[in-house]
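Quick note —
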Amino acid sequence: MIERLWSRVRGFLRSLTGQIFLLLTIGMSLAAMLALLIAEQSRSHDFQQWRMQRVVASAEDIGHRLQRDPKRVEAMLAAQQIMGAALAPEGIAVAEPDAELAKALRARFGPGSNPEASQVPAGFCFPRLRYDPSAGAAGVVNAPRPACWIVRFTDSTGARRSMALNLPRMERPPSMMTNPLYMLLIIIASAGLAIIVSRIVTQPLRRLEHAAESFSLSLDPEEIPENGPEEVRAALSTFNLMQRRARAGFAERTQLLAAISHDLQTPLTRLRLRLELVENEELRARLLQDHQAMQTLVKEGLDLAASTETQEEWSVIDIDSMLESMVEDAQDLGAPLRFAGGCGGTIRAKPNALSRCISNLVSNAIKYGGEAEIGCFRQGCRLVIHIRDKGPGIPSEQLDQMFEPFTRGASGQPGGRPGTGIGLTIARSLALTFDASVRLMNAEGGGLVALIEMKA
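Predicted structure written out below.
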């Protein structure tokens, strides 16, 4: 179960759809995480700027108050009667001055203010015994101490002022980058979008793949509708043009073969009449035998031409009835053919082309195997007709070569006896006209099996 699932996943990732899916998922996930990180950094920077502005505003407010009533404000600062501000404790040095904050204070107080500012631990500004927010506010328990800044500057009177400013400490929420659930949500969303995009992108390629497969199984497939983006339409148009040119080439070759074979009939007939006049009986018999071989070759050439240009209409066929009828007809003529069993149901095919294809394979099996049996079975969504003979078989490396025109096996093997060598070529050409395929295989226990595979 696990191996099968892993095999399917590996097969998917090797496909173009899988590779686009993987690339988009990783890319979009990383892009989302990077955007989230940048947003958090920007939010942190904005928070720092806001906090600095509040410190500057507090310092400016206290500075203006000191200018108006310095004694009273100093007393209030000493008694910590101004919320958020107090006199700076003695002996606290600005060890790490905040240059950016000092620049903002200089802009408010003037270039001669010589400001200094730095954030210090809250304990320096508010001793534990003198600052307890839970005692003066409802709902505040174990609240963190405010953030504290020491600010020093020279006011317009030349007096050096030193104060401690505080703001409520605001804890930032935890980063989403550390939340695995949020990261998982990003990956799932990216994967969902990636699978949709990858299927949309590869859909034209799948159409092209199916069209190429149909063209490999049939000489006259339907053209692909040319729709979609401009590049896709151009590719589909080029493929349709290739199909038309290939069909035109097949038709031209077939017409040429048919014309040659037909034109040879007349001189062959005259040649036979003249051969009958040869007085030497032995010589006449050999010449007539050669003449008969030539006539057979011409006839099968015409059959080959006709097999690739059939214009027969499609029909629904009861395959079992058809096979049983062909077996009965062959047995009536004394042919050693046996029906091995049916598969039930109907198929859509071209009746005459299918009948000629089967007859060709049956004749070949009886000729080279002595006897044959025929039957059919279903394999998934395919229907397979099998014709088996009792001959010695063919070496595995030569099976595909047997479908080449004028190819015969070695002497003593099926196909190695006298013949033209285009019987299997005709059978395969006929099968292509109804979107089927023909192949050979050696049977277990001896003999050769010819298989016609088509859509059920």
